[in-house]
Amino acid sequence: KFGKQLAEALDKNVDQIEEDFKAGRKFQIESLLQSVKDEEESQWRADGQFMLLEAKRENVKMQLEAIYRERSMQAYNEVKKRLDYQVEKQRIDNMISQKHMVQWIVSNVLKSISDKQEQENIKKCLSDLQALAAKA
Asked: What is the count of structural domains for the chain?
């Protein structure tokens, strides 16, 4: 008479123990799966950090390149300004030298012409003009 009730009670007790064991095991499996998932996410983030670090390095290299190019352009412009100044200075020096040389030549030529030569030259020009007028 008590066998059936005892069997049911013991079965219930065994079922409860088995259920507790399965629940504990299920919780442990879920916990371990979550740990694996968290570890994979951590690895993914670490890879992202490496990519971010590499991008930052590349960015620094690009900034250094931009600074280098800017300074190179400044140096180029400064050298060009100085060369343009030298070219303009040389052009002005040549122009002044030519002007003084022309003035010197003209003044020396005028000094070398005597009054007698000038009078002879004027007479020759007048006779040439009269000869041309006679032909026309």
From this structure: 1
